[in-house]
Design the sequence.
């Protein structure tokens, strides 16, 4: 996964992880999360890699990128939280 990643790639993936955690713990601006996910998809275009990273992130944080993004796409609120 990290093989071949640039520093910028790692920053983009880390930013998504941070926003996913924030969306699960408090609130996040929906457009920021969606933009971070688009940047993440530029780094990780493969569905299988995305699923693997999601499993690893969920194992370490308890939060699912997939479920968080589903919640973000299902709302039109400017700020949202997965728990709301």
Sequence:
């Amino acid at each position: 996964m990290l093989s071949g990643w640039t520093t910028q790639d790692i920053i983009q993936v880390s930013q998504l992880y941070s926003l996913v955690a924030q969306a699960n713990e408090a609130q996040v601006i929906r457009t920021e999360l969606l933009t971070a996910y688009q940047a993440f998809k530029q780094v990780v275009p493969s569905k299988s890699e995305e699923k693997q990273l999601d499993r690893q992130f969920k194992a370490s944080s308890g939060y699912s990128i997939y479920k968080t993004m589903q919640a973000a796409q299902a709302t039109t609120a400017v700020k949202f939280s997965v728990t709301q």
User: Anything to note?
Assistant: Strands lie at 28-29, 79-80. The first strand starts at residue 28 and ends at 29. The mean pLDDT is 94.
